[in-house]
Write a structure and sequence with these properties.
about 400 residues; 12 helices; alpha+beta; six-stranded antiparallel β-sheet; about 15% strand
Length: about 400
């Protein structure tokens, strides 16, 4: 008997002794008088056994047939032995085995294939979500063995909207400036320019203290290449002081490391290009459909990217000196620039932009200049050492042994 049934037994014993009326028993048990009357009748006819639920120990009328359960568990063992119940239920449905994820969870727990996980307590100072889509987007890299040893480790540069948990990301070998730029560019093409980015203190996003102090001493603004691109787009960069501060995107890494790793295994994908195709074609759309939430406010804070040259903004910029004959040296290569007007002085500075597609662009006074690459200059030949030559200055003035002067000797 359950505790509830035992409490009901205690009340009916008092009713049988005349210490309690049936109407009072109904109020004590918190049930209607008709329910109390029906239970009292079964208790008088069958005793304590009449209070036990009649479905206990029997197969549920709504339960799945045993054969279907065995087929589903066999399919689970065959293809999805390390999948969680929810993800496994989705994949089983694609294979033609429709089962609710909670039903599958109970089957896996009962058979020992899955162990219940303890829920973590909520953080006592959890930050509330932003109210608007695009008001703040979190950005972070996730380094992981995504291909489970089939290929080298790589990094997912991930973005997640703080208000709705809408996600976007691309894979790269490392969390580099170029990877961060490509990810933000992809987000802008999908949704628009966000109001702010929430990032950690990696030097990809913000400069370190030493570089900041040096820039302040020189009277210039301390920006990384990524930070400069964000400034041109009007995106504010907010830095987090700890991983817990951007917990939503950190928890989102776990979704990728669970679902995406298993998808890559099932599809036999072991390259970065193949993974990015999977993300763009179906995985991200499916992920956003399942896990996004409604924003508290309807207004979208994204701005249109119309009028912005994103290819020009997402580039690596460096300043170089120009000679009087309009020659620039960049990345150990020499380039001949063509001035806009004849007679213009070539000495000064020029801004070199290397775009993500590898093309070079030279800009001076906000005007792009034409250029051509010059042949590589030959390296100077190293000086050869003369054999038998003088080694010191004094030896230069001492005649060799076979010199005629050596025949004369001065007697002491």
């Amino acid at each position: 008997m359950s505790l509830k049934e035992r409490d009901r037994l205690k009340v009916f014993v008092r009713v049988g002794d005349g210490r309690l009326m049936l109407t009072e028993a109904a109020e004590t048990l918190g049930v209607s008088y008709r329910t109390a009357l029906r239970s009292w009748k079964r208790y008088r006819e069958e005793g304590e056994a009449g209070l036990v639920h009649r479905g206990r120990g029997k197969v549920s009328n709504r339960g799945a047939p045993r054969e279907l359960r065995e087929r589903i568990l066999a399919r689970y063992d065959e293809r999805y032995p390390d999948f969680g119940p929810t993800f496994a239920a989705e994949k089983l449905e694609e294979d033609g085995y429709a089962v609710d994820h909670e039903t599958l969870r109970r089957w896996l727990l009962a058979s020992g294939r899955w162990k219940a996980k303890r829920r973590r307590a909520k953080h006592r100072s959890q930050r509330e979500r932003k109210k608007h889509f695009g008001e703040m987007v979190q950005m972070d890299g996730s380094h992981h063995d995504w291909f489970e040893g089939r290929a080298d480790r790589c990094c997912l540069v991930n973005m997640a909207d703080d208000a709705t948990s809408v996600r976007y990301g691309i894979f790269s070998g490392e969390e580099t400036t170029e990877a961060a730029m490509r990810t933000l560019w992809g987000w802008i093409e999908r949704y628009g320019i966000p109001l702010s980015l929430y990032v950690d203190r990696k030097t990809v996003y913000v400069v370190d203290e030493q570089s900041r102090e040096r820039a302040e001493d020189e009277g210039r603004e301390a920006l990384t290449q990524f930070g400069r691109a964000c400034k041109r787009l009007g995106i504010r960069i907010i830095t987090a002081n700890s991983p817990q501060a951007k917990g939503r995107i950190e928890r989102g890494h776990g979704i990728y490391q669970d679902r995406l790793v298993k998808e890559l295994r099932l599809r036999g994908i072991d390259t970065i290009d193949g993974t990015n195709r999977l993300l763009g074609e179906e995985f991200l759309d499916d992920l956003n459909e399942r896990f996004t939430v409604e924003a508290a406010a309807e207004a979208d804070y994204h701005r249109s990217a119309e009028g912005y040259d994103l290819a020009d903004i997402f580039s690596i910029e460096e300043e170089r000196s120009v000679t009087r004959d309009w020659i620039v040296r960049f990345e150990n290569r020499f380039f001949q620039l063509v001035p806009k007007l004849k007679g213009m002085s070539g000495s000064g500075k020029v801004l070199v932009r290397r775009r993500l597609d590898g093309s070079l662009h030279f800009v001076r006074n906000d005007e792009e200049l034409e250029w051509k690459e010059l042949p590589a200059r030959p390296a100077p030949k190293p000086k050869e050492k003369r054999r038998g030559g003088p080694k010191t200055i004094m030896e230069k003035y001492i005649p060799p042994p076979d010199h005629p002067w050596r025949r004369f000797r001065i007697s002491p």
